[in-house]
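My main concern about presentation is that the manuscript never shows what a single data entry looks like. In essence, backbone conformation is discretised, so a fold becomes a row of integers matching the chain in length. An entry of this sort, consisting of the sequence and the corresponding backbone structure tokens, reads as follows:
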Amino acid sequence: MKKIAKFLILVLIVCTFGACSKNSTAVQSANNADNNKKITVTDGMKRKIELSKPAEKVLTNYPIAVQILCALDKQDNILGADGNVIKNPLTFSPKAGSSKTAASNDINVEQVIAAKPDLVIIYKKNKEIVPKLEKSNIKVFVVSAENLDELKSTVKDLGILTGKEKKSEEFMEYYTKKLNFIDTKLKVVDQKNRPKVYMAGGGLYLAPGKNMFQNSLIELAGGTNVTGSLSSNKWSQVSAEQLISWNPDVIIITQYSGVKPQDVLNNSALKDISAVKNKKVYLMPSKISSWDMPCPQTILGIMWLSTKTNPELFKDIDITKEVDDFYQQFYGTTYTKLGGTLD
């Protein structure tokens, strides 16, 4: 499986909404009443977004937004993609695909306008195009999902905007249940006795500070981030000497770090670090999508990391089954069938 990288996608998702044959008259009346109601949410820039009915045609250049939409509806009806696309099984259905490529990662405003979408979803770093799209009466939802609460809020809002509230509620219930389960298990571990965790980002010596999503992920999984005193909201450069002085019990290597666990274990300069001596250096899943990012699979990253920080507490957890069950519930297939591994 190819790892998700930076890429541009303009996805047209068509969702069909219909009444059941049983009690069709009553259902149709209810649907008509619902259609007269305004749909209102607040996006990641605190902007009020209002639709007259659930969005049926959605365009986005943000891969995580596509993953959320797929999780909400188990999408297999993506009709096409425009851009330099990496065909990831959780981004596009088997029916989808495009041979077109884009010259850059910029959003083509003209193409978006021509597609006449009901809703455009963008990442906040592209916020400068909002006025251009709104000038053409196109509704734009800006995503800011830099922590777990923002991620959950985004899922809820996209569920409302696309008429998939029940599915978004199912997603939230899953998250709440699993987080409560982990938290209950961790109550027996005193905060000062929690294992010290070091996470490597874009390189072995790039680490997350207290304002980064990865910091909260480590804490939710029952660890203490050794770089949590760093105040930057970006990956911070640290030295080998600092890493040695922190002496982490566990070292986590991200998929995009360019480093393998064996590289750390074979590094003679780091041989006295507790994690190295005890061979507790792990590669964070997954090759399909990075579980340390604010995406639907984040809960899997928390569960997986819990089994590494406190293995005795979570020894009864079959993490592969947990992961497969999640993918089956929200993507209609299992992680194993997609070729995902937990190495």
Remarks:
- The chain has two domains: 11-165, 188-331.
- Confidence is low (pLDDT under 50) at residues 1-33, 76-86, 93-105.
- The longest strand covers residues 119-123.
